[in-house]
Design brief:
The protein is α+β, with helices and mostly antiparallel strands. It is built from 13 helices and 7 strands. Bound molecules: iron/sulfur cluster.
Length: 319
């Protein structure tokens, strides 16, 4: 509703888009969506392209997403291969190689493509759809999209990672893994990396009803989002020394305030939040930082954990 079409998204400043996206995570997607909207306006007269290569050329769109868009929206015989489809294909065709290896990936993509092309050819044989059966209509009107949707849905709801419901599966008669008893070990995947425990110290400095926040760089994790000055430290590091590294010698005290927990993929992060007192009212030299009022605190787009801190401040919680 706020940005109702591609042109509105393209016109919006990035900070506005990030603020609307705040709390959803995966902020790179918001930035890519914004860049894609601008490219569509610049190169395609504001109309989303239908050509596979042009879709693939948009920022943030890889082979899987381009295939999903072209098959589901435009009924083109473009394959999709996500985790769910990989699992279904590896089991049905009894593929025992590591699915992340390049040759296995090529084989899986080739199978997915052969299936969606067969769906496109078989569309002529589909009987006239019953007007009240939306599934039959979908197959008749968009066989490529219906096939890809069905593969993804089957993997998500029936051919699940643990305890697949083979008795309810329409592919059971042809499934190599079911017949040979391999469902528990397929697909063959690399071990997940071990989880890492990390410690981050966050420092909240206040002065005359304003708080010190900084903007993250335009590249890297959480690019362009706002946060309170913070530092990742070793488990035994002293908070006061960390505060001095961030703010210089002008830190008079760093008082413990909150303890939060945050998880990102394989990281388990212990977040310790401190209230900082400065020795003087002189300038605080933190790159890309500024003092913001309550209104600024509410309006800026913060990373998830820093938004929790900002909301506590806005709610009036003090140490
Ligand atoms: S028969 Fe079982 S293992 Fe094979 S595709 Fe269906 S749910 Fe998956």
């Amino acid at each position: 509703r706020v940005l109702p079409d591609v042109a509105a998204l393209a016109r919006a400043p990035l900070d506005r888009v990030l603020k609307l996206w705040e709390g959803l995570g995966y902020y790179t997607r918001a930035r890519q969506l914004h860049r894609a909207a601008r490219q569509i306006c610049r190169e395609h007269a504001g109309v989303f392209p239908r050509d596979f290569a042009a879709v693939l050329g948009l920022p943030g769109i890889g082979r899987y997403t381009a295939g999903a868009i072209c098959s589901l929206a435009f009924n083109q015989p473009a394959p999709v291969l996500d985790g769910n489809v990989t699992r279904v294909l590896a089991r049905v065709f009894g593929i025992r190689d590591l699915v992340t290896r390049a040759p296995t990936q090529r084989r899986l993509w080739a199978l997915a493509e052969a299936l969606v092309r067969a769906a496109a050819r078989g569309a002529e044989a589909v009987p006239a759809a019953d007007a009240h059966d939306w599934r039959a209509r979908r197959v008749a009107e968009c066989p490529c999209g219906a096939l890809n949707e069905a593969l993804m849905e089957l993997g998500a709801t029936v051919c699940t990672p643990r305890q697949p419901r083979c008795e309810a599966c329409p592919l059971a008669p042809w499934c190599v893994a079911r017949v040979r008893g391999w469902t528990a070990r397929l697909p063959c995947q690399a071990r997940r990396p071990a989880t890492r425990r990390r410690r981050v110290l966050v420092f909240v400095g206040a002065r005359r009803g304003r708080w010190l926040v900084r903007r993250r760089p335009d590249h890297g994790v959480n690019a362009g989002l706002w946060e309170f000055p913070s530092l990742e430290v070793a488990s035994g590091a002293a908070p006061r020394a960390a505060a001095r590294r961030l703010f210089g010698a002008g830190v008079a005290a760093a008082r413990p305030w909150l303890k939060l927990r945050h998880s990102i993929t394989t990281s388990r992060i212990a977040v310790e939040v401190f209230r900082v007192d400065f020795a003087s009212l002189g300038p605080v030299r933190v790159p890309d930082a500024r003092w913001v009022s309550r209104r600024g605190l509410a309006a800026l787009a913060f990373t998830a954990v820093h938004r929790r801190v900002a909301d506590r401040l806005l709610a009036g919680e003090t140490a």
